[in-house]
TrEMBL record:
The keyword Transferase appears for this protein: yes
Domain DhaL intervals: 6-206
Keywords annotated in UniProt: Kinase, Transferase
Source taxon at top rank: Bacteria
Protein name as it appears in the record: Dihydroxyacetone kinase subunit L
GO biological process terms on file: glycerol catabolic process
Gene Ontology molecular functions: glycerone kinase activity
Length: 209
């Protein structure tokens, strides 16, 4: 079994649960180098995503991600809402009408997420944003998928790479988003968006395991 409708729904549900459980930590990270709303923003967005899925009852994994992305764009404030929302919509579109995506197909969808975020936010790796977690995660996933690894193995490697990418944001100075207003004072903290991206990738690894 690959990434089917049920797994896609489980991903968004699990993401909502873990982000809720870690809301205070995400908020504290954003309070240090931003405006302290990242936890609340994402809880609101993912709650809307879960509600949208319950209402629309999507029948493919691609549709699940498109519906979730729409909910997030509609309900999430801040920079992260449009970024995550567009990313999920783009990932859903990349899956097309497949009912059960394999590792290569899911890897292409994750690549589409990254492309959407980079197009919208124009952050490069090293700018201390969610791209510092998602970029390495997508590379790790696709390297393994290209070698014929299973979807759970690729997802596990992606989650590990996202967490390593998150840790690597600590010494960086932010060059995008609110944290960039702090200049050198943004050094020494994890980026909140990279932290939430790491949670999303860990949730993906859990539901595909
Ligand atoms: P806001 O900063 O508007 O309050 P959030 O607190 O919800 O929005 O999200 C902040 C996170 O969004 C940052 O930690 C960073 O990871 C991400 N972010 C901000 N701007 C960009 C950008 N241009 N490209 C990619 N990610 C960004
Ligand atoms: Mg914020
Ligand atoms: Mg804000």
């Amino acid at each position: 079994m690959g990434f089917d409708t049920e797994t896609a729904v489980a991903w968004i549900d699990t993401a909502a649960t873990v982000v809720k459980a870690d809301e205070a930590r995400l908020t504290a990270l954003d309070a240090a180098i931003g405006d302290g709303d990242h936890g609340a923003n994402l809880v609101r967005g993912l709650t809307a995503a879960v509600a949208g899925i319950a209402e629309k009852e999507p029948s493919t994994p691609g549709e699940v991600l498109v519906v979730a992305g729409r909910g997030i764009v509609a309900k999430t404030g801040g920079a992260s809402g449009p970024l995550y929302g567009s990313a999920l919509r783009r990932a859903g579109k990349a899956l097309g009408d497949t009912t059960d995506a394999d590792a290569v197909q899911l890897g292409a969808a994750l690549e589409a997420m990254l492309t959407a975020i980079v197009e919208l936010g124009s952050a490069a790796e090293g700018d201390k944003t969610m791209v510092d977690a998602l970029g390495p995660a997508v590379r790790a996933f696709n390297d393994l998928a290209a070698d014929g690894a299973s979807l759970p193995a690729a997802a596990l490697a992606a989650a590990d790479a996202a967490e390593a990418g998150l840790a690597a944001t600590i010494p960086l100075q932010a060059r995008k988003g609110r944290a960039s207003y702090l200049g050198p004072r943004s050094v020494g903290h994890e980026d909140p968006g990279a932290a939430s991206t790491a949670l999303l990738l860990r949730a993906l690894a859990e539901v595909t395991a």
